[in-house]
């Protein structure tokens, strides 16, 4: 490599280029003398001058790191002082914002456009994804700015002192709320009722979505699985936590319901010809089709979600009992 | 025993003592490289990339004063302890001695007669 500037020139420039006009030139001058002193000492000890300069500079290490130390700037985006607050916010904010964004976008689109549900759901999902990325990015940027603007002496301190009243009001594994139970049970029973009503034939005034000509065994099985789901919610509340047995029953009923529905779906027996039914009922266009993969995806997603959260809560309950 | 583990603990133990070593040594004015060598000769090896920014920080905190000496061919920045620095040094030294005594007491060194 041919270059007109010496190794020292380039090193000193790299260290001091981001330092202010007040300290930069002074640091540069001192650093030059220091490197020269180190080189002299090495040459006196018998090292070749060219090698000596390289050694002296290597010993000082990465110039960016050195520049940070001179400038008193942190070598990280978010340090241990504000990290716990960052984690707290990154848990709370997405949990509130993302469902709102999803529901708001989905309902607005359903009300204003006549695209099919699959593409609307996909659109809402993509929106939630981009909102999530933005949320994470901007929260992180804000915290990084706070971290970088703090005086050096406060850097490892938390933004505000922790107080015992910040603890959760109840340890999670004791937290099977009555409200939560009522919502889950009512939802499960309402679903069972709705499915039963659909299977028995809805008559003139309803919209026939599920196939009323299905074999009675499957009708009873599906309704029963939803009823079990509701009973399970009540059982969990009575026991006070998700036990491994209850979680296993929940996984089994979810898997059973999902497999049964997928099997019926694959045989074209689960749903009626929806475009036809809706067309007759509301005079809508019949020029669309329900996408079987999308329906299958939602069946699997909902069943898996329900099963996994139950297992997760059961595990947390076991761990919670161990710490109690 | 894991060498890295020991090195980590030793580094942790030495970290705070660099300031003490600097303030002690800089009762006489010295420039950066000379200080580095003095400390190394005394068995207190410090990396240049730790020491030089530290001198700046202590100067900014008012514990050191500095002066450029341009009498020789190579201009050098000399640092020495300020009155504030001297009082900080006193307190740090008192703390250091009391820590040493406290650790000695915990270790039972008195009983064994090791500690004088």
From TrEMBL, chain A:
Give a yes or no for keyword Transmembrane in this entry.
yes
What keywords is this UniProt entry annotated with? Answer: Membrane, Transmembrane, Transmembrane helix
InterPro entries, sorted: Perm_prefix_1
Report if keyword Cell inner membrane is assigned. Answer: no
Coiled-coil stretches are none
Report the transmembrane regions from the record: 92-112, 124-146, 182-200, 220-239, 246-265, 288-312
Please state what the protein is called: Uncharacterized protein
TrEMBL record, chain B:
Source taxon at top rank = Bacteria
A Pfam family this chain is assigned to:
PadR
InterPro entries assigned to the protein according to its UniProt record, in alphabetical order: Metal_resp_DNA-bind_regulator, Tscrpt_reg_PadR_N, WH-like_DNA-bd_sf, WH_DNA-bd_sf
Q: Where does the record place the Transcription regulator PadR N-terminal domain?
A: 20-90
Q: Which residues form a coiled coil?
A: none
Q: Which SUPFAM superfamilies match?
A: Winged helix' DNA-binding domain (SSF46785)
What PANTHER family does its record include?
PADR-FAMILY TRANSCRIPTIONAL REGULATOR, TRANSCRIPTIONAL REGULATOR RV3488
Protein name, entry field: PadR family transcriptional regulator
What species is given as this protein's source?
Knoellia sinensis KCTC 19936
């Amino acid at each position: 490599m041919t270059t007109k500037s010496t190794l020292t020139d380039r090193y000193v420039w790299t260290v001091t280029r981001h330092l202010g006009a007040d300290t930069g030139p002074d640091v540069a001058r001192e650093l030059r003398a220091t490197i020269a002193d180190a080189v002299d000492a090495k040459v006196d000890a018998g090292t070749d001058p060219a090698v000596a300069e390289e050694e002296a500079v290597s010993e000082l290490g990465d110039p960016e790191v050195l520049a940070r130390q001179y400038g008193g700037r942190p070598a990280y985006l978010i340090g241990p002082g504000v990290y716990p607050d960052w984690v707290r916010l990154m848990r709370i904010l997405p949990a509130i914002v993302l469902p709102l964004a999803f529901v708001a976008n989905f309902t607005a689109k359903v009300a204003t456009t006549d695209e099919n549900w699959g593409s609307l759901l996909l659109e809402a999902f993509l929106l939630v994804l981009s909102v999530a990325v933005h949320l994470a990015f901007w929260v992180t940027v804000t915290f990084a700015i706070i971290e970088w603007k703090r005086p050096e002496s406060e850097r490892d301190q938390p933004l505000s002192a922790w107080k015992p009243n910040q603890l959760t009001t109840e340890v999670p594994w004791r937290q099977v709320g009555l409200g939560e139970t009522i919502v889950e049970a009512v939802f499960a029973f309402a679903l069972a009722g709705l499915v039963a009503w659909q299977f028995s034939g809805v008559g003139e005034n309803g919209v026939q979505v599920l196939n009323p000509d299905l074999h009675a065994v499957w009708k009873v099985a599906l309704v029963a699985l939803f009823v079990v789901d509701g009973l399970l919610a009540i059982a969990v509340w009575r026991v006070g936590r998700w036990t491994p047995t209850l979680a296993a029953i929940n996984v089994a009923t979810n898997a059973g319901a999902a497999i049964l529905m997928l099997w019926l779906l694959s045989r074209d027996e689960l749903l009626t010809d929806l475009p036809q039914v809706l067309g007759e009922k509301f005079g809508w266009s019949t020029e669309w089709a329900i996408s079987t993969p999308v329906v299958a995806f939602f069946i699997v997603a909902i069943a898996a979600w329900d099963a996994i959260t139950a297992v997760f809560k059961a595990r947390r309950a076991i761990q919670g009992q161990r710490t109690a | 025993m894991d060498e890295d583990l020991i090195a980590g603990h030793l580094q942790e133990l030495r970290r705070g003592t660099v300031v003490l070593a600097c303030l002690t040594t800089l009762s006489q004015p010295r420039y950066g490289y000379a200080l580095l060598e003095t400390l190394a000769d005394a068995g207190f090896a410090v990396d240049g990339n730790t020491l030089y920014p530290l001198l700046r920080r202590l100067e900014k905190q008012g514990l050191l004063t500095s002066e450029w000496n341009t009498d020789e061919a190579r201009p050098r920045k000399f640092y020495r302890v300020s009155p504030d620095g001297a009082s900080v040094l006193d307190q740090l030294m008192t703390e250091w001695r009391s820590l040493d005594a406290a650790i000695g007491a915990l270790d039972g060194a008195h009983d064994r007669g090791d500690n004088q």
